[in-house]
Design a protein that fits this description.
The protein has helices at 4-13, 38-53, 60-74, 82-89, 112-121, 133-142, 148-166, 173-184, 194-206, 231-237; strands at residues 20-25, 93-97, 103-107, 122-126, 210-213, 221-225, 242-243, 254-258, 274-278, 282-287. It is an alpha+beta fold and 288 residues long. It folds into two domains: 1-91 and 249-288, Ribosomal Protein S5, domain 2; 111-246, GHMP kinase, C-terminal domain (Alpha-Beta Plaits, 2-Layer Sandwich), CATH 3.30.70.890. Strands 1-10-9-8 form a four-stranded antiparallel β-sheet, with helices on one face. Strands 5-6-4-7 form a four-stranded antiparallel β-sheet. A two-stranded antiparallel sheet has the order 2-3. Strand 9 and strand 10 (282-287) form a beta hairpin. Helix 2 (38-53) crosses helix 3, helix 2 (38-53) crosses helix 4 and helix 9 packs antiparallel against helix 10. The model has no long low-confidence stretch (mean pLDDT 88).
């Protein structure tokens, strides 16, 4: 099996017979990565579907933990655990990654109206800038001790963002994102570049109060907090970029279809079994 994530998922679940996996994405997928956690989404979704095929229920915690095992422990990707956990759990969560490798996932409780209002004030643009995230993340890891003060500030900002959501104060989100972006830029030399800085400056001048490049940085998607009355101006300022409207996903990876008929192979015939599953970035089908 050539696909590294699918190969390791098959090993973990314990499937050795012939199998075909087909996946499709609604986002631009490339080898350079785009900062939306697409590789972790794939790992979570494939694990979920393979377990469903075997008739085994896998919890969100198990899917997240085993996806981390594949990407970090086995494939040695220089990444964190946030993509795997948010993809597995879905929804609004405050996720705490502890020094003993445990992970606490706590829902952020706030009215639906608050989430809807926040969603309406967020804009997402694809910069068209490709980057290899591993080089950025490796430099960031090497500079961990040097960047401890900046990292501590980012932790505090995450806590502040949660508190503002709980108290329905979304007007503070833009400024928190802006402050966080300035700290994030200091973590590695290629987190930002001249083009990204220009895009962000144009957006701020047009009315955005804050934002950040998603993922490791260096390219991919630019997230902005913009009050509705300024959004048309921001679109004009960034008209050379592709806007990607989105909505918050209340659920994590889900099995949406299982063909549970008795396999014809038991009657001496052959037929493919199909399982469809959804995660935050893609809908995929797997034929077995």
């Amino acid at each position: 099996v050539q696909h590294n994530i699918i190969r390791e998922a098959l090993k973990i679940v314990g499937i050795e017979k012939a199998i075909e996996v087909v996946y499709m994405g609604d986002i631009p997928l490339g080898s350079a990565g785009i900062g939306l956690g697409s590789s972790s989404s794939l790992a979570i979704g494939v694990l979920n579907a393979l377990y469903a095929y075997k008739g085994v229920h896998a919890s969100a915690e198990q899917l997240a933990r085993e996806s981390c095992q594949i990407e970090i422990d086995i494939l040695s990707e220089p990444i964190g655990k946030q993509d795997q956990y948010i993809c597995a759990y879905g929804g609004f969560n405050f996720i705490q990654f502890n020094s003993d490798d445990t992970v606490f996932v706590d829902p952020v409780i706030c009215p639906h109206k608050t989430k809807e209002s926040l969603n309406n004030k967020l804009m997402l643009f694809y910069t068209g800038v490709e980057r290899v995230s591993s080089s950025i993340l490796q430099e960031q890891e090497q500079k961990t001790q040097v960047n401890l003060e900046h990292l501590d500030k980012l932790v505090i900002l995450a806590q502040e963002l949660k508190e503002n959501l709980i108290h329905n104060n979304i007007e503070a989100i833009g400024a928190i994102l802006d402050e966080g972006w300035h700290y994030k830029r200091k973590l590695a030399s290629k987190v930002s570049n001249t083009r990204i800085d220009e895009y962000y400056a144009l957006a701020r001048k047009a009315g955005a109060t804050g934002g950040k490049i998603l993922g490791a940085g260096g390219g991919g998607f630019l997230l902005l907090y913009v009050d509705e009355k300024y959004q048309s101006e921001v679109r004009k300022a960034l008209s050379h970029l592709v806007e990607s409207p989105f909505e918050f996903e209340p659920q994590g990876s889900k099995i949406i279809y299982v063909n549970d008929q008795v396999p014809l192979s038991q009657m001496g015939l052959k037929r493919k079994k199909k399982i469809s599953f959804r995660d935050k970035n893609k809908t995929k089908e797997m034929s077995i």
